[in-house]
C-alpha cells in the first residue's frame, strides 16, 4: 500500500479517535444519565475543553473529505511521488498537532497548523494539477 493510502487509513482512525475522545469528555461533563438519554431538550453548556474538542473534531471532519479526494485523485491518476508522500505526512502531522494545540487552547499556533495542513493537501494535489 502506498504512503498516501497508509496516511489516509491513519487519518480515518484519527477521525474516530477524535469523535470518541470528544464524546467521552462530553459524557464525563454531562453525566451518565445524559450520555445514555435521547439527548432531547436543553443540555448543559460545554466546558471550554469539551467545546474546543468538539470544534477541533468539526474542523477535521470538514476538511478530511478534501484530503480523501486529493489522495484518491493522485492514486487513480498514477501521480503519486515523493511530493505527494511528503504532503500526506505533513497533512497528518499538522492535523494531529492542530488537535492537541486546539484542545490546550493555543489560538495562533492552532491557525498556523491549520494552514500547514492545507499546504499538505496542496502538496498532494500539485502533481495531479500541474505535474
Automatic annotation (TrEMBL):
Lineage: Bacteria, Pseudomonadati, Pseudomonadota, Alphaproteobacteria, Sphingomonadales
Organism: Croceibacterium xixiisoli
Superkingdom of source: Bacteria
Classification via PANTHER family: BLR7753 PROTEIN, INNER MEMBRANE PROTEIN
SUPFAM superfamilies according to UniProt: MAPEG domain-like (SSF161084)
Predominant location category: membrane
Keyword list, A-Z: Membrane, Transmembrane, Transmembrane helix
Protein name (database record): MAPEG family protein
Keyword match rRNA-binding: no
Pfam families hit by this protein: MAPEG
